[in-house]
Amino acid sequence: MRRHVEAHLELDVAATADMVLSIAVAHTPNIAAESLVVTRDGSPLDPATIEMANGGRLHQLRDVAPGHVVVDYSATIDGVIEPLGVTDSEWYQYVRPSRYCESDRLGPLARAEFAGLDDHELLAAVSSWVGSNISYIPGSSRGTDGAISTLLARAGVCRDFAHLTAALLRANGIPARVVAVYAPGLDPMDFHAVVEVCVDHTWYVVDPTCLAPRTSLVRIATGADASDTAFLNVVTGSVELVDVEVGAVVEPELPTDNVTVLTQLG
Predict the structure, then answer these.
(1) Per the omega criterion (within 30 degrees of 0), is the bond before 208 cis?
(2) Using CA atoms, how far apart are residues 69 and 45, in angstroms rounded to an integer?
(3) What CATH code is carried by the domain that includes residue 246?
(4) Tens digit of pLDDT for each residue in 158-188?
(5) Boundaries of domain holding 144
């Protein structure tokens, strides 16, 4: 399997800014080709690379003067990588509540709703419950909404589905983390968010939206929630996101996805 991904961002910087991009695919030996070009008013900028867990890479831009910034990224990934194991520190990190996954506050609901289920049954039940009870409605949520807001609104986008799924699993003692991905087959195309769940010391990928086949997904960033995986973070200054275009295709053809089969993100 060969996957091609790309992202195009346009930003208007109104006041000198520090920002961080998270659009590069996680670093693996399977990257056959890769390019990142950043310019401000046509002049090249040189972002610093910050290595993160699970192969993630951030690109930091410091002291960007006012102007029009254009970001173009592309990568080709051949084959799949070996699935990631689960370390003890990851188990502890991702079983705890986080900013957008308020598993402590959702505990009573989560334990009552999914009582008596073992790890494998629980994974399937939570994913199915979120997919059945939450409506996917673009623009229905805010960037600061967490799992509880999604539960109350009964609507959201992929990040909201991921937050609620992770929170319900953590509330039942199952480590779960949010992964930003490129998703061949997604329509409309955009950055996508899914969940990795720890079962039998292995990370399995869950996507309660069922909007793209899991075996075609390409990892970008991994973290506790969207605060760790957003494609753009403006640390200081004033920046307006003018345009985002994302592309992701797979060769020779888009695979099918059997949601009843445990799948790992490769």
Answers:
(1) no
(2) 9
(3) 2.60.40.2250
(4) 999 999 999 999 999 999 999 999 999 999 9
(5) 88-229
Residue 135 lies in a domain: yes
Is residue 264 domain-resident? no
Task: Indicate which CATH number applies to the domain containing 113.
Answer: 3.10.620.30
Residue with tokens 């039942």: 172
pLDDT tens digits for 229-256? 999 999 999 999 999 999 999 999 999 9
Same domain assignment for residues 168 and 73:
no
8 Å CB contact between 222 and 166: no
CA distances from 110 to 115, 135, 170 (A): 8, 19, 9
Structure tokens at 233: 């973070």
Say how far apart CA 179 and CA 161 lie, in whole Å.
12
The amino acid at 14: A
CA 184 to chain CA mean position, Å: 14
